[in-house]
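In this notation, each integer encodes one residue's backbone shape. One such record reads:

___
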Amino acid sequence: MTSQKSLIWGNKFKYSQLQILLADTLTIFWGDWLELRVRIAQIAASGLISPLIYILAFGLGLGNSIRPGAGISGNYNSYLEFMLPGMVALSSMTVSFAGTTFSICGDRLFSKTFEELLLTPINPLAMHLGKMLAGVVRGLMTSCSVILVALIITRNWNFINPLFLLIIILNCAVFAGLGVIVGLSVRSLESVGLYNNFVIIPMSFLGATFFDPSTLPTAFQAVVYLLPLTYASTGLRAAANFPLSQFPWYSIPILLVMAIALTYWGGYKFAHQQD
């Protein structure tokens, strides 16, 4: 009887902890959302500039000289059709990472309000989840703009199927989580530029956004498949153009595991952060 009681109370305690964690996460997210909601159009439009340039330069410009099927596996009517899912992955990565990083850096280095957040009686894991959730929303705002462009160009309604949207959310979670960690680690905005130059920009071109990884030599494939953007790009491309039987299902658990690992790392950083 005693063991049964302790088990029941233990389950209730765990459930109560989960409720508190969720409430704290939404509290942190709500603070960022109050700023985001007045800039929805600005965030969506600003994040659309880079993908549009790539679409015009590579999809419509260079793409017209690439024969369908040359260097890429699968049946595509044009190179533009091939690269559009990669542009969705690219935009969600860039905005989720940059928006989250600069938001935290602004609070830490300029407004000096970040110390107040650290002093609040909120679970460090909830702090990370709240900031990461705000980054996911930023990424989704821009992704929706790119998806709208893709729908206008291709008339392919698979760009809004549940599997496609799930991969976008996971991709945003991975890079928003990375953005939180970078935002907590850097000491100046110049340092953010270094992360952007040595991590984000190379990944933008090597993360299977413009090419099919299966066409690369094996050694290069090993490098490309170390990048989380590769799984997002190939997953989105398959969700938009291939039947479910050809979908790379491994991309979902890999992105999920990366997001969870970054979440625990971010929670640890918040617990030991000193500003």
Q: What stands out?
A: Residues 111 and 248 are 44 Å apart (CA to CA). DSSP finds eleven helices and no strands in the chain.
